[in-house]
Amino acid sequence: MTAPVLTSIVPGAGPLHSSACFVRFYLPMKFQASPPTPLPELNLKPYTCDSHYTAVRKFSGFARDSNIVQEAQKLATRLSRSPWANSTSEESRSTYSIAQYNSPFRLIGCVNEVWVDVNASGLLFDSFY
Length: 129
Prior knowledge:
Blueprint: E1 5-10, E2 20-25, H1 29-32, E3 53-60, H2 65-80, E4 96-100, E5 111-118
Antiparallel strand pairs: 1-2, 1-4, 3-5, 4-5
């Protein structure tokens, strides 16, 4: 398995305007020049990510629907109080993404992140906590 496994949430893209999601797996550099061919019945599509800026909030434990939404809200609140307020990227296909770095069989010490793409052109960079 690769890390992180990135699940992006797209509100209103599912049936009856429900949320939909898509999952992306990182392909290590040694396979990027000649990626393995997936089985056709899996309906997998390659995705190439251009350089961009992402706001990130790290959290521990299992990534569950209940705490994912809470962590996404905490990141949104934090962004609203920062120089990046109102700078979420309009080019993003999703509202937010969840990056999971550990095997689902790991019981303690799990590391997860909530990601939100931001449009950082013209902003000065500094981290905030």
